[in-house]
Inverse folding.
C-alpha cells in the first residue's frame, strides 16, 4: 500500500492521517496498524457517496457489527436534529465508549460526526474518511467539530475533539464537481498565503494539475497543506492566538454565506474564496500588503477561472446585514470586528478590533471591485 502518513500530536491526542489512492480498500489493515479496535461501528455517510463504496467498507469490516446512517449533507442538516437522530441510533444499539463512529463524506459529515463522537457518552472512538478536497486539506485536521444553530448561524455549537484516525482516500475526489474542487483548492491556497511562500510558488506552477487531480501533484498539495495546518494546530490547539490565522477570508466569507442563507448559490468554499479576495484587497488598502503580492495572488485566483463577484450576490443595501453577520462571528469578543489580514505572501497578521464603520466604508467603496 503506497501512501503518505502524517502524524499529528496535540495536547489531547496523537493520531495519523493517511493520504493516498484506494485506501478505503485497506481500511482493516490501517485500523489494525493504528491499533484501533472496536466491536460495533456506525458509518455516518453522505448520501452522495455511492452505495457500492459503503458496501466495500462494510465487507472489509465484516467481522465487526456494522451499522449505517445515511443523510443528505447540507448546512441545514448540520443540526441538532440530525445529532439527535444519530444519538438515538447509538443508544438503541447499545454503543459504548469502546465502539466507533466512522464519518464518510465532506466537511459537513466530518464536523457533525466528530461532534456526535465527542458528546456521546463523553467520547467515543472517531475515524474520519473525508471525501471532498476541502475536507481532506482542512476540515478533517485540527479537531474542530460542530453544528449550526438554526437561527443564529454557522458552527456556533461544537467542541474540540481529535479523531483517532483520518484516511484521505483521493479516489473519492474523482466524483467531485469542478466547483467543489475549486472550493478545496481555496483552502490549500489559503494555507500557502498565511504560512508558506514556497507552497504558493508550487501552486502557481501546478494549480492546473491539482484541479485536474493529477495523482502525484495532487497528493503533494494535500500533504503540504495538511502539514501547514498541523504546524498551526499543534502550536495552538484551542485557537488562543496563532490558529486564528487560519481564518483568513473566513470572517468575510462566513458573512457572505450567512447572508445568502447557506443556500447552494454560494457554498462554503466559494464564500471563503470571495472572503480571501476581500481580505487581500482590504490588506492592500490598509497598506499592509504590497501591490506586487496583491496582483500575484489575484492572478492565481483569475487562473482558476473563479468568476464569482460580490455584486452578483449583494447590493449596497445589503452591507448592514453583512456587517451584522460579521459582528456575530464567534471569533469576536466585543462589538468590534477581528480580521486576519495578509502582510505578505506567506505571512498573515491578526488584527484585533477593527471598527465596524471602517469595514462598512470599505465594502461600500469596493462592492464592485471584488
Ligand atoms: N472543522 C473544521 O476545521 C472545518 C474547516 C473547514 C470547513 N469546515 C466545514 O466543512 C463544511 C464544508 O465542507 P465541504 O465543502 O466538504 O462540504 P460538504 O460536506 O457539504 O460537501 C460538499 C458537497 O460535496 C458532496 N460530496 C461529498 N463527497 C463527495 C464525493 N466524493 N463526490 C461527490 N460529491 C461529494 C456533498 O454531498 C456536498 O454536496 C462546512 O460546513 C464548514 O463549516 C470545517
Amino acid at each position: 500500500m503506497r501512501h503518505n502518513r502524517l502524524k499529528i500530536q496535540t495536547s489531547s491526542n496523537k493520531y495519523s492521517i493517511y493520504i493516498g489512492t484506494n485506501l478505503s480498500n485497506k481500511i482493516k489493515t490501517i485500523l489494525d496498524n493504528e491499533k484501533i479496535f472496536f466491536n460495533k461501528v456506525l458509518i455516518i455517510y453522505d448520501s452522495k457517496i455511492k452505495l457500492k463504496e459503503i458496501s466495500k467498507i462494510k465487507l472489509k469490516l465484516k467481522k465487526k457489527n456494522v451499522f449505517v446512517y445515511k443523510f443528505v449533507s447540507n448546512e441545514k442538516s448540520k443540526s441538532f436534529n440530525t445529532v439527535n437522530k444519530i444519538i438515538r441510533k447509538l443508544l438503541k444499539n447499545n454503543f459504548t465508549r469502546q465502539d466507533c463512529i466512522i464519518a464518510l463524506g465532506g466537511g459537513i459529515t466530518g464536523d457533525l460526526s466528530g461532534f456526535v463522537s465527542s458528546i456521546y457518552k463523553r467520547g467515543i472512538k472517531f475515524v474520519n474518511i473525508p471525501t471532498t478536497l476541502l475536507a481532506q486539506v482542512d476540515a478533517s485536521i485540527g479537531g474542530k467539530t460542530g453544528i449550526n444553530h438554526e437561527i443564529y448561524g454557522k458552527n456556533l455549537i461544537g467542541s474540540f475533539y481529535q479523531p483517532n484516525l483520518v484516511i484521505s482516500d483521493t479516489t473519492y475526489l474523482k466524483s467531485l464537481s469542478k466547483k467543489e474542487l475549486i472550493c478545496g483548492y481555496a483552502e490549500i491556497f489559503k494555507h500557502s498565503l498565511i504560512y508558506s511562500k514556497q507552497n504558493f510558488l508550487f501552486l502557481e506552477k501546478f494549480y492546473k494539475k491539482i484541479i485536474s487531480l493529477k495523482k502525484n501533484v495532487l497528493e503533494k498539495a494535500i500533504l503540504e497543506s495538511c502539514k501547514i495546518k498541523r504546524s498551526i494546530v499543534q502550536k495552538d490547539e484551542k485557537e488562543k492566538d496563532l490558529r486564528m490565522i487560519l481564518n483568513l477570508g473566513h470572517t468575510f466569507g462566513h458573512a457572505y454565506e450567512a447572508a445568502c442563507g447557506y443556500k447552494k448559490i454560494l457554498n462554503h468554499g466559494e464564500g471563503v474564496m470571495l472572503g480571501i479576495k476581500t481580505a487581500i484587497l482590504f490588506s492592500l488598502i490598509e497598506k499592509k500588503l504590497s501591490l506586487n503580492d496583491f496582483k500575484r495572488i489575484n492572478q492565481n485566483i483569475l487562473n482558476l477561472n473563479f468568476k464569482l463577484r460580490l455584486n452578483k450576490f449583494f447590493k449596497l443595501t445589503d452591507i448592514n446585514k453583512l456587517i451584522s453577520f460579521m459582528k456575530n462571528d464567534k471569533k469576536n469578543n466585543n462589538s468590534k470586528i477581528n480580521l486576519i489580514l495578509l502582510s505578505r505572501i506567506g505571512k498573515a497578521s491578526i488584527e484585533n478590533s477593527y471598527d465596524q464603520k471602517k469595514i462598512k466604508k470599505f465594502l461600500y467603496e469596493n462592492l464592485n471591485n471584488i
Summary: The longest helix spans residues 215-235. The chain has a mean pLDDT of 93. Residues 46, 48, 73, 78, 105-109, 111, 131-132, 134-135, 138-139, 142, 144, 155, 172, 175-176, 180, 183, 268-269 surround nicotinamide-adenine-dinucleotide (CB under 6 Å).
